[in-house]
Design goal:
The complex is a heterodimer of chains A (168) and B (228).
Chain A lengths: L4 H16 L8 E2 L6 E2 L9 E6 L1 H9 L10 E3 L14 E5 L3 E11 L4 E11 L5 H14 L5 H8 L12
Antiparallel strand pairs in A: 1-3, 2-3, 3-7, 4-5, 5-6, 6-7
Helix pairs in contact in A: 1-4
Chain B lengths: L3 H16 L6 E2 L1 H14 L4 E10 L6 E11 L2 E10 L5 E8 L3 E6 L4 E6 L8 H7 L1 H7 L4 E13 L2 E11 L4 E7 L5 E6 L2 E10 L17 E2 L5
Parallel strand pairs in B: 1-8, 7-13
Antiparallel strand pairs in B: 2-3, 2-12, 3-4, 4-5, 5-6, 6-7, 8-9, 9-10, 10-11, 11-12
Classes of the chains: A alpha+beta (168), B alpha+beta (228).
């Protein structure tokens, strides 16, 4: 599987941050092919990482999302724009921080008999900074450029090469 | 002997009775008056038109400026966006319309669109929704302090100034600042989430013709959700 530098950087930032906040993605595998790390290089195409796994993998992931307060918490998120682009979403979680917040959406895929999980990081959490998040979204629709993960990495203090968990 | 638990409960009760809010960080009473005024100004608004200019706080951003023209006649909305990118001279435009049953989003430079039936993401309310209940917004974000930070003579258009009070809302990882018109109670500028949003024009309750909320794909426009 050949990835571009941008795909590699974006995937590295997402997985590093997911690991930092304690998400257990260990039993999931990356969706085969370039769609495993889709780049939002168009007005209606989102940057997101796609993983697939069985019910045990999903159980571990859901179990790693705490229900209390703090940075490692997720809340149901029904305020996003996913209905425009994604169908049949069965769960939708959001890291409980105002900025650079991980979003996870998931659905059951009857064709592959597996759970398909998509992750991305939004510069502004729509539940905390709705105005700024909406501005980010309309900017994406207008320019065709989704989240710049090199900027996310700088804000989060992540070095995509050094911190990438796949290279160790 | 007074237990620590009862002292905490007493402090919380005093906080609620003094400020009309549950205990949530440090709230300056004069700031709370301003917050309540803003909430009263926006609470009943179901129709408005606004022109918003957004500038990123970081010079590294690929976007230099963004101009957003919003019209709301709840639940219908129209949002025109124009972006001036740092590396290019061209201005890029898009349009989002909710006509009451379908949301349309159109990208002008690519002449492509997507549409979604049924419940739409609310692009019309969102530009003012935080201001309807600022204290709830402050609480939900884990506010630490809410205070007045002075006054400013804000230039909205060349030569047109508005007297504003500055309201700082401090959170664990950022401080938001709002510029609030002294005469109107309107939020005229907001800085948060890595950008500053200036409301060059905002008219609450303005009548808007229904024609603004209709959309038909321009000739040759391609549905981006369909296979090419």
């Amino acid at each position: 599987m050949q990835w571009t530098n941008e795909q590699f950087t974006d995937a590295s930032v997402i997985t590093t941050e997911a690991g930092r906040v304690g998400l257990n993605l260990g039993w999931f595998t990356l969706w085969a092919g370039p769609q495993g790390m889709q780049i939002g290089d168009g007005p209606f195409k989102n940057t997101e990482m796609t993983l697939t796994g069985n019910s045990s993998a999903l159980g571990l992931l859901l179990g790693s999302m705490c229900q209390g307060s703090g940075d490692n918490c997720f809340t149901a998120d029904n305020t996003t724009f996913d209905s425009l682009f994604h169908k049949n979403i069965e769960f939708n979680f959001r890291q409980n921080v105002a900025t650079d917040s991980i979003q996870i959406t998931g659905r059951w895929d009857a064709n592959t008999y597996s759970w398909i999980v998509q992750l991305d990081i939004d510069p502004n959490n729509p539940l905390k900074n709705p105005l700024a998040h909406t501005a980010d979204v309309v900017q994406h629709w207008t320019t065709g450029h989704d989240t710049d993960y090199s900027q996310v990495a700088k804000r989060l203090g992540i070095d995509p090469l050094r911190d990438n968990p796949w290279c160790h | 002997m007074v237990s620590l638990k009862s002292l905490v409960a007493f402090a919380a009760a005093v906080s609620v009775s003094a400020f009309g809010l549950p205990c949530m960080g440090q709230i300056q009473p004069t700031a709370l008056e301003v917050v309540n005024r803003v909430s009263r100004t926006y609470s009943q608004v179901s129709q408005y038109e606004a022109e918003i200019e957004s500038s990123p706080d970081s010079a590294l951003s690929s976007t230099k400026k963004m101009f957003i023209h919003v019209m709301l006649k709840a639940p219908k909305f129209r949002v025109e966006t124009e972006v001036l990118e740092s590396q290019e001279e061209a201005r890029l435009r898009s349009l989002a319309v909710y006509d009451g049953s379908t949301t349309w989003v159109y990208n002008e430079s690519q002449n492509t669109y997507v549409s979604s039936r049924g419940q739409a993401p609310d692009l019309g309310e969102v530009w003012i929704s935080e201001f309807r209940d600022l204290s709830a917004h402050y609480e939900s974000k884990g506010g630490l302090t809410l205070r007045l930070a002075g006054e400013e003579h804000l230039e909205l258009e060349k030569g047109s100034f508005k007297d504003c009070v500055l309201l700082d809302l401090q959170y664990p990882h950022e401080t938001e600042r709002l510029w609030i018109g002294k005469d109107s109670g309107l939020v005229l500028r907001a800085r948060h989430g890595g950008a500053t949003y200036t409301f060059r024009k905002i008219e609450l309750g303005k009548p808007i013709d229904d024609a603004a909320f209709r959309f038909a794909p321009p000739p040759g426009a391609r549905n981006a959700a369909s296979p090419q």
